[in-house]
Sequence to fold (139 residues):
Amino acid sequence: MILWIKAFHIVFVVAWFAGLFYLPRLFIYHQEATDAISRARFVTMERRLLALTHIGAVLALALGISLLLEMPVFLHQGWMHAKLGLVVALVAYHGWCVKLTADFRHGRPVPSSTWLRWFNEAPALLLIAIVCLVVVKPF
Fold:
């Protein structure tokens, strides 16, 4: 059973990251859009992608918690503490994406496209760090 949980945990982590990779890219395009029709289209795309990203996040987190309940020994290992800290950062990033989606939808001020391009890189860095911790277990 634990292998099934692990497999689906990975599937939903991939889904979560897919949303977090593409949503900030939509923000960049939205910020650079000049006409009302394009802006309205981006609002719809961002809302729908965010909903799918929420599903990936909730299922990845729920399955991750169930894995920890099945294998509590990992909670005593340093690499897992580091991984969980990075997951908290990922959840915070997700929350920031929720805020930006709402800001775009309501026409509130949003960061520049240059800032959004840098913001777009954060999930890739988190993914690299999390995968390295899980695979290598350096401490």
